[in-house]
Amino acid sequence: MLQVFTKDVSTLVLDSAAPEKNIESVASHIKLCSCKNMTIDITNLNILDACRVSALCSTMHYMKYPDGQINWIVNSEAVEACVSMMGLGNSSFGVGANIGG
């Protein structure tokens, strides 16, 4: 079952049709920012791209922040089912709730 995560101005929203651009965006954010704990919205991606981006970026994030956490906002439980099989302990999956409504 998916959790509910709060979406706010610090939430990184990925919406490029090219998965490589989304991966580069997250990699750059991880490299340049202090983001031990972060929330990333991938609801605009199809299921396959969402699985790919979340698995690769969770791994990148773990390399810099082994005790960090990424909350992935998804539009399908299928993404969680796919990525959870990889045993990435720094990833949680849920739906987004906007602050203030």
Measured as a percent range, the helix fraction is 25-40%
As a whole number of angstroms, the C-alpha radius of gyration is 12 Å
Number of strands: 5
Total count of helical runs of at least 4 residues = 3
Q: How are the strands of the largest sheet arranged?
A: 1-5-4-3-2
Main sheet, how many strands, which sense, barrel?
5 strands, parallel
- Secondary structure class reads alpha/beta
The helix-strand sequence is: EEHEHEHE
Task: Sum up the overall morphology in one term.
Answer: globular
- End-to-end Cα distance: 22 Å
In the predicted model, the low-confidence regions spanning at least 5 consecutive residues are: none
Strand content: 15-25%
Kindly report the average pLDDT value. Answer: 92
Folded structure, characterized:
With 101 residues, this protein is α/β, with parallel strands linked by helices. It contains three helices and five strands. It has helices spanning 19-32, 47-64, 77-84, and strands at 3-7, 12-13, 37-41, 69-73, 91-98. The protein has a five-stranded parallel sheet with strand order 1-5-4-3-2, covered by helices on one side. Helix 3 (77-84) links the parallel strand 4 (69-73) and strand 5. Helix 1 packs parallel to helix 2 (47-64). The longest helix has 18 residues, at 47-64. It is globular and about 30 Å long.
